[in-house]
Amino acid sequence: MPESNDHSMTRRNFLATSGTALAAAASPFATGIAGAQSKKLKVATVGTGSRGTLTWGIPVVKGYSDVVEFVGLCDINSKRVKVAQGMMGISAPTFTDFDEMVKKTRPDAVIITTVDGTHWRYIVRALELGCDAISEKPMCTNEEQCQAILDAAKRTGRKVTVTFNARHGREDKRVKQLLMEKAVGDVVSVDFHEYLDTSHGADYFRRWHYLKENSGTLLVHKASHHFDQANWWLNSTPTEVSAYGELKVYGRNGTFRSTHCRVCPFKQQCKFYWDITKSERMKEMYTDCESEDGYLRDACLFRENCNIYDTMSVRVKYENDVMLTYTANTYQPFEGQAIAFNGTKGRLDANHFGGGGYSQGEVRLTRAFGKSEVIRDFEERREGGHGGSDTSIQDLVFRGKPDPDPLGLRADLRAGAFGSLIGIAAYHSIERGGETVKISDLVKL
Ligand SMILES: NC(=O)c1ccc[n+]([C@@H]2O[C@H](COP(=O)([O-])OP(=O)(O)OC[C@H]3O[C@@H](n4cnc5c(N)ncnc54)[C@H](O)[C@@H]3O)[C@@H](O)[C@H]2O)c1
C-alpha cells in the first residue's frame, strides 16, 4: 500500500520532496529536521482568531521557537490581530492587508486560519507571492476555489499543506495501521456517524459557519475532517456522491429569536442562552473587537437566514468500489462518533461517545469466524488540543516528524482537494434533490 495519500507520489519522490532532502529550501517540511539547518522557518499568519492564536500561535511560540519565527500577523479585524500579538507574546508586526504583510515580512510560509470561504484567496496569493501555504481545513468551500488553488499550485510549483489534525488522533493512527495490515481483509463498506451535541453542534449556528458562503455548510466545514479520514484510511479516491440534508432544529425553526445572547429578551426561556462575558478570553478576542467588524460571537442560533443543514446523510462511492455511508447530526444529547469498516475478513469498529452523563469508547477488531478483541496498544497520548492530535500535526509541519511517515500523515494539495470535494458534491446533490454528483465533473485535477 502506498505510504502517501497522494497516488501520483512514490515513496522515493515523497522523501525527496519532504524532510531532509529539502532542508535548505525553507519549506515547512525542511525546517525542523534534526537541527540540520541554521535558518528558522519564517511564518506569517492570516486569520488570528481562535485557531490562529490558540493552536497555530501560542503553542508554536512555546514549543517550536527553535525552528519557527513569526514575522507577521494579519486579520481583517485590526483589534483582534493586536490581541493575538499580545497573547502570543511576540513583537512581529500586525497588518490588515495580506499582500502588504507578505511583501514587507517575506515569510517562507503562510499559515491560513481565516473563515473557510476565504482560505482559497490567501492560498493562491501566498503561492503567487513565493510562499508555501499551510491552510487549515477545509482547503476550499466550492469547486471554483478548488480549481483556482490547483491551478495556482501548478503554475507556481509551491507547496500546499492542509492541516487535517483528525488523522493524528492515536486511535485514528492505529485504525490506519490495522487497515494497512489488512486486519479485516479488503474493506467493502464504511459506516461513519458523527454526533454533535447541543453545545458544540449548536455553536456552529451561532458563529460564521451558519452561512454556506462562509463554511460551505458543515458538510465541508466539519465533515471535511471525516471525509479526509475516510480517503486516507481507504487509500482511495472518491468518485460519486449523493446526499440529503435538512435544517430541523436551528435557524428558522426557533420559535423566538434575537440578534445575540447578550441583548436577548428570551434569556430565561432559551435553552441555548450563553453568557459570553463569563470568559475573559472570549471577551478579549471577540466582544472587545466587535467595533471593527460587527462580528457577534454569541449570535442567535435561530437566525432566519441560516442556510446550512443540521441533519445530513451522504453516500460516497470510491474508485476501489468501497461504499461509504456518512451521517452527521448536530443537536444530540451527547457527542460521539461511530465508525465501522466492514471487510471481507472481519469488521473494525472505532466508537467514542461523551458528555451528557455518558462516556464510552473503544476500537474493536472482530475477525470473521474468529475472535473479537479490544485494541489497546495505542501510542502514548500527547499533550495539546484535540487529544494531542494538534501537537502531532505541529511536529509534522514544523519538525518533519515522523520521518519516515509510514502512515502517510501529511495531507497535501490533493488530499485537501478531495477532503473538500465530497462535501461540495454533497451539497450540490442536496440542492438537486439527491441526484448523484460525479467528483470528476467538479474540477480538473
Ligand atoms: N482543524 C481543527 O480542528 C480546527 C478547529 C477549529 C477551527 N478550524 C479552522 O480554523 C479556521 C478559523 O476558525 P476559528 O475557529 O479560529 O474562527 P474565528 O472566527 O475564531 O477566527 C477567524 C478569524 O479570521 C478572520 N477573518 C475572517 N475573514 C477574513 C478575511 N477575509 N481576511 C482575513 N481575516 C479574516 C476573523 O476576523 C477571525 O479573526 C477555520 O478555517 C476553521 O475551519 C480548524
SSE order and pairing:
Layout: H1 11-16, H2 28-31, E1 41-46, H3 50-55, H4 58-64, E2 68-74, H5 78-88, E3 94-95, H6 98-105, E4 109-112, H7 119-128, E5 132-136, H8 143-156, E6 160-163, H9 170-180, E7 187-197, H10 200-206, H11 212-215, H12 218-221, H13 223-234, E8 238-246, H14 280-285, H15 290-293, E9 311-318, E10 323-332, E11 335-343, E12 346-354, E13 360-367, E14 372-375, H16 389-399, H17 413-431, E15 437-438
Parallel strand pairs: 1-2, 1-4, 2-3, 4-5, 5-6, 7-10
Antiparallel strand pairs: 7-11, 8-9, 8-15, 9-10, 11-12, 12-13, 13-14
Helix pairs in contact: 7-8, 8-17, 9-13, 13-17
Bound molecules: nicotinamide-adenine-dinucleotide.
Residues 46-52, 75-77, 80, 113-116, 118, 136-137, 163, 165, 208, 221, 386 line the site of nicotinamide-adenine-dinucleotide.
If you had to describe this structure to a student in words, what would you say it looks like?
- It is a single chain.
- The chain has 445 residues and is an alpha/beta fold.
- Among the domains are: 11-166, NAD(P)-binding Rossmann-like Domain (Rossmann fold, 3-Layer(aba) Sandwich); 258-293, no CATH class.
- The protein is built from 17 helices and 15 strands.
- The strands form 2 sheets. It has a 9-stranded mixed β-sheet with strand order 14-13-12-11-7-10-9-8-15. Strands 3-2-1-4-5-6 form a 6-stranded parallel β-sheet, sandwiched between helices.
- Helix 7 (119-128) packs parallel to helix 8 (143-156) and helix 13 (223-234) crosses helix 17 (413-431).
- The model is unreliable at 1-36 (pLDDT under 50).
- The site of nicotinamide-adenine-dinucleotide has 23 residues, from helix 3.
